[in-house]
Amino acid sequence: MLVEVKVPVLAESVPDATLLEWYKKTGERVERGENLIDLETDKVTLEVPAPDSGVLVEVRKNTGDVVLSQDILAVIDTAASAAETSAAAAAPAAPVAEARPAAAKMGPAARKIAAESGIDPASVAGTGKDGRVTKGDLLAAGSAPVAAVAARPAPSAPAPVAMPAGARAEERVPMTRLRKRTAERLLQAQAQAALLTTFNEVNMQPVMDLRARYKDDFEKRHGVRLGFMGFFVKAAVEALKKFPVVNAYVDGDDIVYHDYFDIGVAVGSERGLVVPVLRNAETLSFGAIEQQVRDFGERARDGKLGIEELTGGTFTISNGGIFGSLVSTPIINPPQSAILGMHKIQDRPVAEKGQVVIRPMMYLALSYDHRIIDGREAVQCLDTIRQLLEDPSRMLLQV
User: Fold this and answer.
1) Which residues does the annotation mark as catalytic?
2) pLDDT reported for residue 99
3) At the topology level of CATH, where does 185-397 sit?
4) Which residues contact 228 (CB under 8 A, 6 or more apart)?
5) Which has the closest alpha carbon to 84: 56, 125, 48, 116?
6) Does domain 1-99 have CATH number 2.40.50.100?
7) C-alpha span between 30 and 56 (Å, rounded)
8) Which of 49, 132, 269, 384 could bridge across to 300 with cysteines, CB 3.0–4.6 Å?
């Protein structure tokens, strides 16, 4: 029986996808659920698994092609064997990438590291599910002793080109779809919104003391470390309840208010910045928030986030502090009207009760669309977040 391999149904906000790389050639045996090809969209990289076991008898789309939902990518013959189709495989066919060995199954992040480091994935023992080679496996292999690395066959490379002394080279690399889409949205935000940023600073000592007091009990109960993001999400939700216009957006001549709080959490990945969304954050516990944030980070690194997880959102939190940023002005994520920027925690002298003391301080930034959010609302919203973080019991009592 012939089974068609189709492009998955894409979200309404994702019109098409680009075919990245085939992992099988015509005439090769495939197993049900085995990844055949990667598709890149504006938001995520999608794996297309084999819908059934059999032999790949036809490839209809090539690397670099742009495809739509439900387009036919290939055809699998469930009744054929690889031996029966060897002649067909030898015949001229649509060019596809050389298949990877089964032991070299990898996610997008791992493939990028392998390409940059020159490590042969087939020589690395995969520790992931079904023998998948992970990012960690490749990083460990890259740090192996020199003798062990030298024992591996050197990857083929073009002969070096002699460059005149003092010559300078340039390399032109096309943007990925994600990078192009990010660029478009950032320009859209600056061109269509009246952006303004207000700043404040927060004493993180109360939150740090609370984390230190309960971190062990929290991790035992929830299976995840108690981080800072749970406090910031909770504080943001309470502040947005008091200032609902900060959680709204502009639609033509209307302001659309939400009675729910879908908080986007900006996550850096190998492919660029993505913003998965915590749905109905007002209903989530600290444990649920920390679990979802950790899951988002892990799957963002492996390119496993789903399109639906990156769609929507009413407000965004971005943590530049993890990269060492002391202060910055984040850009809103359209059509949202505001974004909170977290920054590096740094010991600084501050005045308390007439004395100078050293406290772990963090600068906060709230960028907002001045078309619908007045400065008074933005400043008070950010100050509310500061108050909640400096006295976390307020979040419990909702005062």
Assistant:
1) 370, 374
2) 43
3) Chloramphenicol Acetyltransferase (3.30.559)
4) 204, 207, 211, 319, 342
5) 56
6) yes
7) 7
8) 269
The pLDDT confidence band at residue 33, using thresholds 50, 70 and 90, is confident
Task: Provide the CB-side half-sphere exposure for 70 (13 A, CA).
Answer: 2
Domain coordinates of the chain in residue numbers? Answer: 1-99, 102-152, 185-397
Average pLDDT value for residue range 338-362:
96
Do the beta carbons of residue 50 and residue 33 sit within 8 Å?
A: yes
From the centroid of its chain, how far is CA 359?
Answer: 33
Distances (CA, A) of 358 to 74, 204, 322, 348, 352: 64, 12, 21, 5, 10
Question: How far is Cα 251 from Cα 253, in angstroms, rounded to an integer?
Answer: 6
- Domain covering 102-152 in this structure, CATH number: 4.10.320.10
Single-letter amino acid, residue 208:
M
Predicted TM-score (pTM) of this structure: 0.66
| Residue 334: φ, ψ to 5° | -55, 145
pLDDT at 147: 38
Residue 316, both tokens: 């965004």
- Lowest model confidence (mean pLDDT) among 15-29, 116-130, 142-156, 353-367: 142-156
Question: Tell me: the pLDDT tens digits for 103-161?
Answer: 456 666 667 667 666 677 777 777 765 676 776 676 677 654 433 434 444 445 555 55
The SS3 call for residue 397 is helix
| Segment 275-278 long-range contacts (CB within 8 Å, at least 24 positions apart) | 275/310, 275/313, 275/316, 275/333, 276/300, 276/305, 276/309, 276/310, 277/309, 277/310, 277/311, 277/312, 277/313, 278/233
Q: Please answer whether residues 30 and 88 qualify as being in contact, where contact means their C-beta atoms are separated by less than 8 angstroms.
A: no
Tell me the pLDDT band of 398, cut-offs 50, 70 and 90.
low
What distances in angstroms separate CA 254 from CA 248, 250, 312, 333, 371, one per listed residue? 10, 6, 18, 18, 11
